[in-house]
C-alpha cells in the first residue's frame, strides 16, 4: 500500500500542478467555456450531468468487455495454433502484421454501413486494434522457451502437448500480461472511437454530440471518465497477474 | 539394472561432424566420467543417449537389445528449474510428465529432500536457492525418475570451487548409498578422478575415444586421497591423454569457422556455444 502511494504521488502532483495552472489561466484571461472550460467547471458540469454520463458509460463498458473478450479468445486460439504448426506460423503471422496497417479510421464508417449501429461493428473495431498485441505477445512468449527446457521435457518422455503444458504455457505468462496491458488500453480507446463514428449510446457518441453543441466542458468530463476506466482496467491487470503468476513478482524482486 | 553398451556412435550436424566414433560400456553401479575439449561433442553424446537426437551411425544397447525411451535420466548443463514451480514440484516434474498424479509424484520426491540436503526447501522457489542447492534439486529431479543410468552434464561446472568440492564429496556419498550408475561429463580432471571408476577421454571434434583410464582408488573416496600418489598418477595420465596431438593429423581439415581446437583447461566451466540463438527469455 505504501509502495502504491509512493508510485502514485509524483504523477498526481504533476496533474495537480497542471490543473492549477489551467484554472489560473482560464480565470485570469476570462476564457469562454465553449473554447476552454476551467477544470472546476468540468467537474461541476460533469457532476450535474452525471446521470447522462453514466447512462453512456455503461454501453461503452459493455462494448469494451465484449470486444476485448472476443479479442482474447481469438488471440489465444491463434497463438496456440501457430505455436503447434510452423506452417500456420508462416502463413498467419505476416497477415497479422498486415492487419495492423488497416486504417481503422477509414474502415470504422464502413463497418457501420455493413453491420449497423449495434454491438457488432464496435466489437470488430476493438478486436482489430487489440487482437494483434495479444496474439503477438503470446506467440513470442511461447517461442521464447529455452530449447534445452524443451529437451528436458522430451527426455522425461513428454511429447509436444506436454512440452506446451509444462514449459511453453507457463513461461509465456509474463509476456501475456505485458500484452494484456497494451491491449486493454487500446480496447477502451477503440471502443470510444467506434462509438464516435456512430452509435446509439456510449461515451464516444456522447462526446461527439456535446462537441457539436459546443459543450466542451461535457466533452472533457467524458474524457475524464474514459481515462479513469483505462487506468482502472490497467491496474486490474496487475491484480490478475498477482493471482495467476505470483512467482513472477517474487522472482523479479530477487533479480 | 542391466549393462549398457554404446557402440560406434557417429553424428554430423549439417556439415559439421561432431562425433566420429564413440563407444562406452557401463555395468550396473559404474561411475564413468567423460572428459574432452570444449565443443568436442560431449553434450551431443548425451543428447543421443537421452533420445533427443538420432545418431547417424552406431547404437545404444541395453543387455544386448536396442535401448528404449526410459533407460537414461538426463540432467542438462543448465539446471532448468522452472521459476513457476516450487522445488518440490520441480523435483516431481519428471514423474508428472510420465503421467503420475501431482500428489503421488510429490509423495515420491519428498523423501529424497533429506539426503539431498534440501529438507525445508520443498515450498521454496528456485530463485531462493543457492547454486549448489539448485544443482542438487536438478539432480533430485533426475534421480526420482528412477531411470537405469544417470546422465550428468557438467553438473558442478558453474559452481565456485569450494561449493564444487563439497558437492563432489556429497555425490560420492549419495551415489554409494543409492547405488546409481552414472555417466558424468566434466571439464575438471580432479573431479573425474575423484568420482569415477573409469574416465573416458575424448579427442577434439569430431570426437572419438582416445583413452579409457581405470581409477583404481578404493571407495569411499575421501578428500585426503587427492594428495596420494595414485591420485596424482591418474591425473597426470589423463592430462597427458588430453594433450596428445590428434591421432590422424593429416585427415582433419582445419575448420574455417573456428580457430584451432582449444586445449582443455583444468578447471574451466564449459564455455561452448550451441548452434542457434539462445532463446532463454528468463533470467
Ligand atoms: N543441435 C545442434 N545443431 C547443430 N550443431 C550443434 C547442435 N548441437 C551441438 N552442435 C555443435 O556440435 C558441437 C559440439 O557441441 P557439444 O556436444 O555441445 O560440445 P561439448 O563437448 O562442449 O558439450 C559444437 O560445435 C556445437 O555447435
Ligand atoms: Mg556441453
Automatic annotation (TrEMBL), chain A:
Keywords: Cell membrane, Membrane, Transmembrane, Transmembrane helix, Transport
Domain ABC transmembrane type-1: 57-237
Subcellular location: Cell membrane
Broad class of the protein's primary localization: membrane
GO terms under cellular component: plasma membrane
Biological process terms in GO annotation: transmembrane transport
Transmembrane region(s): 61-84, 91-117, 123-143, 175-198, 218-240
Membrane topology: Multi-pass membrane protein
Source taxon at top rank: Bacteria
Tagged with keyword Transcription regulation: no
Protein family (similarity comment): Belongs to the binding-protein-dependent transport system permease family.
Entry protein name: ABC transporter permease
Amino acid at each position: 500500500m505504501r509502495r502504491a502511494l509512493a508510485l502514485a504521488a509524483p504523477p498526481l502532483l504533476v496533474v495537480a500542478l497542471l490543473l492549477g495552472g489551467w484554472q489560473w489561466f482560464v480565470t485570469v484571461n476570462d476564457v469562454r467555456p465553449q473554447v476552454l472550460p476551467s477544470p472546476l467547471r468540468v467537474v461541476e458540469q460533469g457532476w450535474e450531468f452525471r446521470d447522462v454520463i453514466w447512462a453512456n458509460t455503461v454501453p461503452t463498458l459493455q462494448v469494451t468487455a465484449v470486444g476485448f473478450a472476443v479479442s482474447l479468445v481469438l488471440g489465444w486460439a491463434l497463438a496456440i495454433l501457430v505455436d503447434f504448426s510452423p506452417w500456420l506460423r508462416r502463413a498467419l503471422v505476416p497477415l497479422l502484421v498486415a492487419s495492423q496497417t488497416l486504417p481503422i479510421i477509414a474502415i470504422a464508417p464502413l463497418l457501420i454501413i455493413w453491420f449497423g449501429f449495434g454491438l457488432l461493428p464496435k466489437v470488430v473495431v476493438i478486436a482489430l486494434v487489440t487482437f494483434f498485441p495479444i496474439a503477438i505477445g503470446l506467440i513470442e512468449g511461447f517461442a521464447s522457451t529455452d530449447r534445452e527446457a524443451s529437451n528436458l521435457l522430451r527426455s522425461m518422455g513428454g511429447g509436444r502437448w506436454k512440452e506446451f503444458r509444462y514449459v511453453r504455457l507457463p513461461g509465456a505468462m509474463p509476456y501475456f500480461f505485458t500484452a494484456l496491458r497494451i491491449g486493454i488500453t487500446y480496447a477502451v480507446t477503440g471502443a470510444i472511437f467506434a462509438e464516435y463514428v456512430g452509435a446509439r449510446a456510449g461515451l464516444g457518441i456522447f462526446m461527439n454530440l456535446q462537441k457539436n453543441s459546443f459543450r466542451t466542458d461535457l466533452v472533457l468530463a467524458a474524457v475524464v471518465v474514459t481515462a479513469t476506466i483505462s487506468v482502472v482496467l490497467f491496474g486490474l491487470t496487475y491484480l490478475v497477474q498477482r493471482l495467476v503468476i505470483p512467482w513472477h513478482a517474487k522472482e523479479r524482486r530477487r533479480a | 539394472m542391466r549393462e549398457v553398451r554404446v557402440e560406434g556412435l557417429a553424428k554430423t550436424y549439417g556439415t559439421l561432424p561432431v562425433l566420429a566414433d564413440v563407444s562406452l560400456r557401463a555395468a550396473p553401479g559404474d561411475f564413468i566420467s567423460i572428459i574432452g575439449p570444449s565443443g568436442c561433442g560431449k553434450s551431443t553424446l548425451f543428447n543421443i543417449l537421452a533420445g533427443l537426437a538420432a545418431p547417424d551411425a552406431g547404437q545404444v544397447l541395453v543387455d544386448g537389445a536396442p535401448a528404449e525411451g526410459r533407460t537414461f535420466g538426463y540432467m542438462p548443463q543448465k539446471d532448468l528449474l522452472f521459476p513457476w514451480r516450487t522445488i518440490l514440484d520441480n523435483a516431481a516434474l519428471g514423474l508428472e510428465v510420465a503421467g503420475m498424479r501431482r500428489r503421488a509424484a510429490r509423495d515420491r520426491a519428498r523423501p529424497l529432500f533429506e539426503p539431498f540436503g534440501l529438507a525445508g526447501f520443498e515450498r521454496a522457489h528456485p530463485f531462493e536457492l543457492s547454486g549448489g542447492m539448485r544443482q542438487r534439486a536438478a539432480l533430485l529431479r533426475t534421480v526420482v525418475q528412477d531411470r537405469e543410468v544417470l546422465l550428468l552434464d557438467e553438473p558442478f561446472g558453474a559452481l565456485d570451487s569450494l561449493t564444487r568440492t563439497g558437492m563432489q564429496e556429497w555425490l560420492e556419498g549419495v551415489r554409494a548409498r543409492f547405488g546409481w550408475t552414472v555417466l558424468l561429463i566434466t571439464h575438471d580432471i580432479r573431479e573425474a578422478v575423484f568420482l569415477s571408476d573409469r574416465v573416458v577421454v575424448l579427442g577434439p571434434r569430431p570426437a572419438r575415444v582416445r583413452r579409457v583410464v581405470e581409477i583404481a582408488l578404493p571407495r569411499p573416496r575421501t578428500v585426503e586421497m587427492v594428495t596420494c600418489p595414485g591420485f596424482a598418477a591418474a591425473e597426470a595420465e589423463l592430462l597427458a591423454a588430453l594433450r596428445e596431438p590428434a591421432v590422424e593429423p593429416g585427415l582433419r581439415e582445419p575448420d574455417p569457422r573456428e580457430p584451432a581446437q582449444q586445449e582443455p583447461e583444468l578447471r574451466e566451466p564449459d564455455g561452448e556455444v550451441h548452434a542457434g540463438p539462445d532463446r532463454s527469455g528468463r533470467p
